[in-house]
């Protein structure tokens, strides 16, 4: 009798755990998200060059190839990697710039540095480039543990 009671308790416990795990697994929530990327190399195409993300919403980050983000507005700080021979500014003029990206669901945004070729920039003139969204494309975003901000 005692053994039978223990068996029923164990069976009940296993059934409870099984139901709990099943309900957890079936309640995966979809979080609308988009991707902001800085890995593509425009290679000077139309005066666009690679840029490296240094800050996200004012907070320093270790630069990554892409950021999976919930839908919303974000400010990215970029450092340019312009390698144009006509760039004549001093190293001290080569600072960071910001770009605001409004992330929409299932969209990928490619960041770049736009080299301004309207005139020759020299000396300490830091107006020679602009942080921009170079390309935007449809991209199925799958929110997961990689989601920045979670």
From TrEMBL:
Keyword Signal: yes
Signal peptide: 1-25
UniProtKB keywords: Signal
Domain of life: Bacteria
Record's protein name: Lipoprotein
């Amino acid at each position: 009798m005692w053994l039978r009671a223990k068996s029923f308790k164990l069976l009940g416990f296993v059934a409870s755990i099984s139901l709990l795990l099943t309900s957890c697994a079936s309640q995966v929530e979809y979080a609308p998200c988009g991707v902001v990327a800085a890995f593509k190399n425009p290679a000077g195409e139309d005066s666009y060059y690679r840029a490296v993300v240094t800050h996200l919403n004012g907070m320093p980050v270790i630069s990554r190839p892409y950021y999976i983000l919930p839908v919303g507005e974000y400010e990215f700080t970029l450092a340019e990697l312009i390698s144009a021979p006509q760039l004549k500014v001093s190293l001290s003029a080569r600072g960071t710039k910001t770009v605001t990206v409004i992330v929409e669901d299932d969209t990928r945004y490619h960041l770049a540095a736009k080299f301004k070729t309207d005139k020759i920039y020299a000396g300490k003139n830091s107006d020679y480039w602009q942080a921009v969204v170079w390309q935007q494309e449809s991209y199925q975003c799958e929110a997961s543990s990689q989601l920045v901000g979670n």
